[in-house]
Structure formats: C-alpha cells, structure tokens
Amino acid sequence: MYKKSTGSYRFYFEKLEVWQLSIQLSKAVYTLTRKFPDEEKFGLCSQLQRASVSISSNLAEGSTRSTKKDQVRFTSIAFSSLMEVASQLYLSKELAYLSASSYDELRLQIEQLAKKMNNLRRSQLNHVKEPMEEYHTSNSEHLFTHLQNEQSSFFIHPSTTIDEGAQIGKGTKIWHFSHIMSKAIIGENCTLGQNVFIADNVVLGNNVKVQNNVSIYTGVICEDEVFLGPSVVFTNVINPRSAVNRKTEFKKTIVRKGATIGANATIICGNEIGQYAFVGAGTVVTKNVASYALVVGNPAEQIGWMSEYGHRLDFDKKGKAICPESGDKFLLVKNNAVQKII
Q1: 162, 254, 297, 323: which is deepest, by most CB within 10 A?
Q2: Neighbours of 200 (CB within 10 A)
C-alpha cells in the first residue's frame, strides 16, 4: 500500500507562479459559471471550464518535457486556452451573465497571467537553438505586449522581459533580450539596445540612449538626454564581497543632463557626472566629473572641455569659446568651470 502523502513535496510545476495564477483563474471561472443559466450548462459553462483547466494542465505537462522546444509548444497551447477564456468571458458579459465588475476583475487576472506566460515563453525561446514553427511567433504570442504598447505608446521587443510595475514613458523603444525590473522608471522617447538590464529604483530621464550590453544597477540616476555607449559599466558598492551582504550600502551615482559616457567606460559608484560632460571610451571614473568636462584614462583625468553638441572647446585668452556647430558661446570661469553664455 502507498504511504499517505505528507504534503511537503511539490512538483516543479507547482512552484511556478504562472501555474499558481492559472489555478486561481480556474477557481474564479468555476465559481462564476455556477451562476450561469441552466441552458448554458453544456454551452458556455462547459467551454469556459474546460478552457480554464487547459491552461494549468498544459503548463504542468510542458514542465515535464525534456526539450525547451516542447516546453514552448505546451506554453503556447496554454496561452491559446487563456485567449479562449478571455473571448468567452467577454461574450458572457455581453449576454449579461457577468456583471461589469466581475468581468473587469477577471480581465485583470487574465492580463496579469498573459504577461507572466509571455515572459515564461520568451525565457524558453532563448534556449531553443533550432527555428520554431511559425505559430510560435504569431500575433497571439505577443498579444499582451501589443496591448501594453497600444495603451502606453512604447515599443518592447518580444524577447524582452518587463517586470510588472515598471514605468515606461511614451515613445520609448526597448530592444532584444533586455530586462526591466519592477521598480525601474524610464522616461519618454528613450532607446535601450540589446541585452540591457535596468534594476529596481533606477531612473532614466527623457531621450536617454542606452547602447548594447549595459547593466544599470540600483542607485543610478540618469537625467534627460544622457548617452551610454556599448558595455558601459556602473557599480553600486565600493567594496563588494561575495560572502558579505551590502544591499543596504548601495551608493548613488548621478549622470546629469546631456552627459556622454563612451563605450566600455566604468563608473565607480558614489560619483556625479556633470551636465554635458564627456567620458571617453574605456575611461574609469573614480571621482566627480565637472559639467562640460572631457575626461579620459584610468583613472579619469580631465584633458579639456566639450560643447553641448559634442565638440571640443578652444578657449581664447579671454576665456571664451564658440561651438563650431551650434554657435553657442561658453566662458571659462573661476574654480575650473565652464558656463554657457546665454
């Protein structure tokens, strides 16, 4: 005879948040369909119940498959069943079987679950070496992303993961294989290249450009029109050790408006990059950088001044310089600083 289960062991699929959410949705569907008219017992009631059960069932079965390609296939089937539930619930509302408040509550559950399922599928697709069948990249796969884009007017590549709660401004574009955490704030008209990571509590202003392979960790604030070149590195702990937890010691790094940080530069945490400063490629910044300053080397040393259009400024004997592109005038003042002459 089999021993009685202690309930302490859990199968892998039972640990998946997306599976747990699908069970909650099924429970809600069963509770609501009990109130449907008797004539719908073998109609909408049956269809809704079967479709909702199909979601968790396919997620569970897919978790046991040995190849990522198979796992993607079952996740896709589960997603399709979720869309069935969404459509049938809408019809139920139109037929007055559901109140508006009940429908809105279920719709929110569906949207949250759709987002989690899309993230799961993208993660699975990242490990698939051979091409997938066309239906795995069909419009249904990206439905939730498209819904977000229509409401918020930003673009997210399907391979990117956006955690729930992240704030993304109008006109922003986020490209392949990036990850934006839930407490990140990204302004309007930003561009984030491939393989960009934005941690919690990071703030990017408007018109910020982040090139490929940049990780921006908690504590970093970039004001408007900042440019971060490929593979720029930010740190947020002065003396990291693997065995020592320093999450309460993150240092703040501020990159002021219009500053440029070149490819492969490293910014040691706790420093400030001034407005329109220019950090050369490969530079290691270990102290504050003045506004309009041009710095290069390891450690960074100032070798000149830059205009807002990115041209090196040549000051005359009176301490005045003119940008050759914009015509803007600048004045070299006391304390080794530059001011723009309005």
Answers
A1: 162
A2: 15
Dist. CA 38–CA 48, nearest whole Å: 15
- Distances in Å between the Cα of 240 and the Cα atoms of 221, 246, 251 are 21, 7, 12
Nearest to 89 by CA among 134, 28, 17: 28
pLDDT tens for each residue of 295-311: 999 999 999 999 999 99
Residues sharing a CB contact under 8 Å with residue 306, sequence separation 6 or more, in sequence order: 276, 277, 278, 292, 293, 294, 312, 313
Per-residue pLDDT reduced to its tens digit, 128-185: 655 544 333 334 344 444 444 444 488 988 778 888 889 999 999 999 889 999 999 9
For 39, list phi and psi in degrees, rounded to 5.
-70, -10
Instruction: For residue 257, report the phi and psi dihedrals to the nearest 5 degrees.
Output: -50, 135
pTM of the model: 0.60
**What is the distance in angstroms between the CA of the first residue and the CA of the last residue of the chain?**
89
* Structural domains present in the chain: 12-137 (1.20.1440.60), 153-341 (2.160.10.10)
